[in-house]
User: Fold this.
Amino acid sequence: MSPATGIKAPRCSLGWIFALCLAVLFLFAEVMGATVSLPEILLSSPYACQGDIVLLKVRVEKGEIPKLTWLEKDVPMVALEEGNWCGFLGTDLKFAPGTYPLKISTTPSGREKSVEIKIESKDYGERRLTLPREMVELDAVTLRRVRKEAAAINSVLERTSAEPSWKGPFLKPVEGELSGIFGRRNIINGLARSPHSGVDLKAGRGVPVKAMNHGKVVFTSDQFFSGLSVVVDHGGGIHSMYFHLEKILVQEGQQVTKGEIIGQVGSTGRSTGPHLHLGVRVNGARVDPLRLIDLSKELE
Ligand SMILES: [Zn+2]
Assistant:
């Protein structure tokens, strides 16, 4: 055996190792390619509880438009940079727990995909209150007024501008600490009433209240329960509600920008002291406004 042959053998093994490494690399690239095949849905969490929000991020091929469907309804999406979209999915406070598919299809290619989102029940606790009877048991005239007012605000919340006008993070309208949590059941004089469908933020009378994001004022009214109230439609199925105001500084139909002052904190309507009741609806679902503020920080 010549020394040259002796050298060739190890070269040959190295060649095989090199070839094997290449094959592994190609296989890895194939597998990676398969996992990121578009469209891709990224969820802030595959789980949500009642009254919760999931932030959706979607990646599609250049030039494609995604359409997301949840419970047979479209989920409005906002275009970010090329091929990237985002949106929010709301689960109502009383949403039936279970596993539901979120479907995506893209235009024009017609690609389809689906992911499962698990909705779990959540006990937000209860608050027992004893109030004078006349504050709780409404006379016929007041009851008629309350029903009319509820119908008016609900019809506003059912309509939404499809085109999202919100952009980036949603801000906290006042810098007050939390004095009333979202979702708590109210037991008044021993009887179950509507659960708390927003959060109460502690703030002094007259403190300016800012719009959480860009949008259009779609409702201003003096309501029996919520006092001076403002609703802003941020488009794409998102509404924010500001209750018990001392003063309203905007008009119905007015466009507002994020952070614009829309009113002042007060204690109008059925309220025990100055605070801001903040409510948020995502596609009609009553959700925790603080979750929207937290999750949307990611969009900065
Ligand atoms: Zn409240």
